[in-house]
Amino acid sequence: MRRPRVAAAIAAALLFAAVGVVLALTTPWDPLPGSVPGGEVKPDPKLDFTHAEIARSQAFDSAINPPAYLGLIIGLVAVLVLGLTPLGSRLIGWSTARVRRWPLRVVGAALVLTTVLRLVGLPFDIWSESILRRYGLSTQNWGEWLIDQAKSLAVTWVIWSVALLLLYALMRRFPRYWWTGAAVTGFALVVAVSFIYPVAVEPVFNKFHKLPQGQLRTDLLAMAQRDGVPVKDVLVADASRRTTALNAYVSGFGSTRRIVLYDTLLKSTPPRQIESIIAHELGHAKHKDVLWGTLIGALGVAGAICLLQLLLTSPALRRRAAAGGRLGDPLSVALLLALITVATQIGTPVQNLISRHIEARADAHALDLTRDPVTFTQMQHELSVRNISDLTPNELEYLLWLTHPAGPERIAMARDWARQHHVTEPPPLVQGR
Length: 433
Ligand SMILES: [Zn+2]
What we know:
The chain is mainly alpha-helical. 70% of the residues lie in helices and 4% in strands. It has a four-stranded mixed β-sheet. Strand 3 and strand 4 (258-262) form a beta hairpin. The relative contact order is 0.15. Bound molecules: zinc ion (ZN). Zinc ion (ZN) binds at residues 280, 284, 359, 362. Residues 1-24 form the signal peptide. Its cofactor is Zn(2+). The chain crosses the membrane at residues 68-92, 104-124, 152-170, 177-200, 290-312.
């Protein structure tokens, strides 16, 4: 087993190096290039948010933090206990004792483990959901919420089952070099899922309809045209069944590209602000953020699979997890799940850091396209207030949760942009300052 281990280590190192190179080259480290006349504006929530808005954001933050952190920690502890002690393999052995065929045992193991982990997290999810409801962010009743949880568990189960069946089939057939085929398959799957997700998974949770003919539809399509980003359609998602939060996104590629608006936007958001949001989304499309993200994700998954070969063939780990003597034993599913969860968790802060830069570039694109920092500022204020965003996240919150810069940072950038382009700087939204 020594040769394959050395080869896997070299392959993992090369693939992660490739991830590093693509990240270094494609991340907009300086989203708003050029110097700012008069100096950069410092983010300051007090300029644009009232005392009551700031207090509400802080109260929500301290209410939502305990279930968020506890849920994360307990979830990680649970998956580690299952994967790094004999407990997980015992659970698999016990629950699949009557199953003879290995593929069914693998699927059974995936079902049992993902369900147990979801049940462990459930109290924290209920806790979070009750807070969202108290603050008016969630519009679901508990029945609808539970159905969503069941759907999401089903999606998780299908994805894990397919992935594990492929992995274990390769491991059993090619115990020495399964990881080469698995890395290639993993790469291809990430690319496929990125294309399929908008068509296959989004409709499980939301219904979509065309935005009817009218000024807004015409204006949005005209803006996309002006931006050189062809868009086939503008759709509305029935998100208000679930939430009061505002959002929009652009999905699909080339001829299938469409703009999707949450119906919550159409209720009270002024059309100029909706345009500003869509201009941001067009920025993602223009810079091919999803495509690059997919490539990075696919390389990362391929690298992680090579790393898995090293970890899964470590006698110490297998003994600790009671994962069975041979590679491809369904008893090792718990160990595999733990290793993948830990790897994903380690990757999150890096992903968030990159994402915040990409989001800032999309903001800069929106400003370039609309040349309207005043509306942009009003829109950011509206987004932050409606979604009760954290206005002053701390270091840990940035690392763990923040995929976007905080509202005040985004507004400060709009003022920087206005100074750079000699356009009227957005005045403070809170009067008398
Ligand atoms: Zn964005």
